[in-house]
Backbone:
């Protein structure tokens, strides 16, 4: 059966025998989003943002996933038929490099802030020297944060330190300004 | 996707220069533009908004021969590199025949390079293309700067499939034509 990630729309081929009748939670190996897969007789994958059953008992994700909207359950004894993160179907669906959503969020944050610093080296120096980084980069940081949230989701953006870390490490050159 | 012009007996191929912001894509294109014979090239067009810029021109190399009697005209494009201009990047990739990834070799831009490479894969995948299947080369630019990552480290992060990769100093033209020739050859091979 085919299952589409409600967030990034990637389509995966899933062995229907591995989907229990009560459904199962799966993590998209492309965008890292967690969604519910129901068996073929019960309709398509849950819509984006639909609350997942609190006690679905589905297999715990293979790694702790910051994923909108609900958090993965605490690692419980794994029930049978764990659903591995589905692999994208061809064509062209190869996830380049590290597919880990945590690593992706961290890299995105660093790339965004690295862009800000690269495009405005003089302003960065002034901001550092005069302690006005926040003020001088208000517009760029707002834009970067919006892009970050759009790509990784508000939950991940707020619950992880990656954006702030990137600000301090890259824009503030290691000082704890943000 | 190459377009054939029967009237002028030309095959038109689109090559996109991709990569992080300020990595040297525009510098590559400008260098090429200034070196190719004016009679063989079109205008250098800059589609610039307040914040982003795309550069474009086409030219007809004289030394590449013909494919079944057709000459090959290359259309070179750059994309805006900053993370948040993805809509433009994606649009420009449409119908691409070959890709050059211009990486910024500076240590502090490594994350931006990797992010741009992921973004390239993702955008191509959304058009149904696989980067492993289309002509693709990498240029490690800015090799003259003091704070650059070693090439083998860049290869490890950016070039797992070991596509042709060239060291460049685009401001001086170093590696610019090596890179272009490499991708052009791959494009022509893919047509033939």
Residues:
């Amino acid at each position: 059966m085919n299952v589409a990630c409600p967030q990034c729309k990637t389509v995966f081929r899933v062995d229907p025998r591995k989907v229990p009748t009560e459904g199962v939670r799966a993590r998209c190996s492309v965008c890292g989003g967690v969604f519910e897969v129901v068996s073929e007789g019960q309709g398509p994958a849950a819509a984006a943002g639909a609350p997942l059953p609190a006690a679905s008992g589905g297999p715990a994700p293979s790694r702790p996933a910051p994923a909108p909207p609900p958090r993965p359950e605490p690692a419980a004894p794994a029930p049978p038929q764990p659903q591995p993160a589905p692999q994208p179907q061809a064509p062209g669906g190869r996830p380049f490099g590290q597919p880990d959503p945590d690593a992706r969020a961290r890299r995105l944050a660093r790339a965004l802030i690295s862009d800000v610093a690269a495009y405005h080296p003089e302003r960065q120096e002034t901001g550092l020297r005069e302690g006005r980084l926040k003020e001088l980069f208000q517009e760029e940081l707002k834009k970067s944060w919006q892009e970050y949230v759009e790509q990784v989701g508000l939950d991940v953006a707020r619950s992880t330190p990656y954006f702030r870390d990137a600000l301090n490490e890259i824009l503030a050159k290691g000082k704890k300004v943000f | 996707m190459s377009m054939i012009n029967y009237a002028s007996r030309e095959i038109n191929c689109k090559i996109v220069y991709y990569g992080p912001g300020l990595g040297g894509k525009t510098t590559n294109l400008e260098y090429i533009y200034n070196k190719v014979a004016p009679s063989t090239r079109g205008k250098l067009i800059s589609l610039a908004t307040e914040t982003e810029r795309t550069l474009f021109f086409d030219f007809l190399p004289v030394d590449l021969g013909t494919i079944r009697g057709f000459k090959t005209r290359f259309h070179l494009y750059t994309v805006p590199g900053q993370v948040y201009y993805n809509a433009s990047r994606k649009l420009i990739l449409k119908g691409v025949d070959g890709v050059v990834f211009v990486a910024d070799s500076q240590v502090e831009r490594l994350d931006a390079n990797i992010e741009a490479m992921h973004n390239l894969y993702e955008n191509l995948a959304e058009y149904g293309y696989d980067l492993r299947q289309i002509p693709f080369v990498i240029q490690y630019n800015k090799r003259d700067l003091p704070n650059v990552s070693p090439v083998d480290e860049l290869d490890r992060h950016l070039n797992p499939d070991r596509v042709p990769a060239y060291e460049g100093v685009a401001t001086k033209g170093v590696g610019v034509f090596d890179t272009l020739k490499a991708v052009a050859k791959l494009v022509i091979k893919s047509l033939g």
Q: What stands out?
A: The two ends of chain B are 14 Å apart (CA to CA). The beta strands of chain B are 3-5, 10-18, 45-48, 53-59, 71-78, 98-104, 136-141, 165-167.
